[in-house]
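S.,

As promised, the FE2/S2 (inorganic) cluster run. Input:
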Amino acid sequence: MEITLNVNGTDHQVSVAPYHTLLSVLREKLGFTEVKTSCREGECGACTVLVEGNAICSCLMPAVQADGKRITTIKGISKRNELHPLQEKFIEHDAVQCGYCTPGMILSAKALLDRNPRPTEAEVRIGLSGNTCRCTGYQQIVEAILAAAPEVEGMGSDTVREEGQR
Ligand code: FES
Ligand code: FES
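Predicted complex:
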């Protein structure tokens, strides 16, 4: 079937089968390779994208479910070539090593800060519980998110809640 995905502000029409995941369509049909693939089982969070502002494992979502929805990848959160505060703080706090988990981590952090602009450290750790990092030990990632929070607050949330979502 033909669906339309609005990715980072641009509509893309694409032909998909019912068994295609959002991850496979974004990467393999549309070329958004910044969306990482790893476990494909919903365990690691590497494939996280924002769907209507909510962090979603794209490996678990059938592409047809995203028809007509607004999808944000890591490349969609910076404005006019300026890094998003979360990206800046990840760099400043050495929260990136191999970087494979980083797009998903930052998008999960953005969804968290959009719904809870002043999280505690414990809330940040819970917010990242679906994202696995093999390199950093998490401490720098948590510090980067806490440091970014005041700058992200006031940027405005673009989250649209759907029934049944957290
Ligand atoms: S690739 Fe989707 S959660 Fe691991
Ligand atoms: S920086 Fe390597 S997996 Fe997180």
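Residues 37-40, 42-47, 57, 59 surround FE2/S2 (inorganic) cluster (ligand 1) (CB under 6 Å). The chain has two domains: 2-76, 85-152.

- D.
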